[in-house]
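Annex B.
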Amino acid sequence: MWNHFTYNKTWLRSRFPADTAYISIIREPSNQLRSATNYYYLPQLMKIKSKNPVKTFLENPWKYKKLSEAHFAYCNVTWDPSRNFMSFDLGYPAEGAEDKERAQKYIRELETDFTLVLLLDYLDESLVLLGRLMCWELQDILYVHKNNRHYSYKTYVPSQKELAKLRRWKAVDYLLFDTFNASLWRKIAAQGKDFFDEVKHFKEVNTQVSTYCSERKKGEQNLTVAASKWSSQFEVDAEFCRIIQSVVRELLQPVQKGHERGRKLLSEKVNIKALINGQPTFKYMTERENYLHMAKSSRKTKSEGKIIKKKQNINEDTKKGGG
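GAL3ST1 protein: predicted C-alpha cells.
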C-alpha cells in the first residue's frame, strides 16, 4: 500500500510480481479542484484574495498558469495542483496537458494496468466491487470518514460556463474520470442482479460498525456482525476499531521507518508551502531542517553584525561629541 504515490510503471514492474493488483482512486474533477484548493494552499500560491477562490480561479484559469505551476527543483519536476492533478498522480506528465492524443493513449494503458480505479463519488459501489474482484471479506472493505475538512467554498457548485472552462483546463483529468467512470459501471453491470443488494447491506453494516467504534467505551462487549449472503459472521473489537479509525499514514509508519532509516520524506503540501514562502523544495525532512537551521543562523549572524555596527557608530559619535 502506498499513500500519495506517483504511479511509475517501470519502477513498480521491476520490484513487484507480475500478478500484483494495482488499485487507485479518483474523483469528479471539479470536486477535486475544491479539495486541492484548500489542501494545497492554492489561493496563497496563485495570489488569489477572495472569499471564494475557486470561483475567482474559474473566471480565467489560464491567467494563473505561471503561478499555479509548482516546480520542485530537487527532482526537476513541474506539478500543477490546479490542473491535471489526478493524471499526474497516475504518472502522466504535467507538460502533456495540451496533448490529447498522448493523454488518450496513456489512459488506455492505465485501463490495462489497473485492476480497478475506484471513484470517490461512488465509494460504496467501488468498494463492494473491489471486494468481489479481490475475493475479500466484508470486514476488509469497511471504513470510517476521516480528514473531512470544512472551508467556506466546499459546497460551491460551479456554473455550466465555469465547468466548461474547467473541462478545457483539466482536459486530461476529465478524460481520465470519464474513462474510469464508464469502466466502473461496465464492471458493475457484469456483476449480476444482487450487486446493489450487497451495496445496501454493506452500507448498513458500515454504519453499524462506524457508530460502534466511535461510541465504544473501554471494556465494552465486542460487536458481533451476523453472517449474510455475502459474508461470514465476524467480531469487531478494540483492535479492529483502532485500525479502521487510523489514517493511512499511521498504518504505514512502521513500514516507512524500516525503509527510510529515519529519513522522512517531505510531502507535496510542505513543499508547496515552501514555494509560497520563497524557499527551496527538498525530498527529505532532514534536508529542509538543515536549510532552515542554516537560514536561521545566517539571519542571526546578520543581526549580530548590525548590532556591532550600530555600537561602533554610537562609539564614533560619542568620541566626536567629546572632542
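The radius of gyration is 26 Å. The mean pLDDT is 89. Further annotation is deferred to the next reporting cycle.
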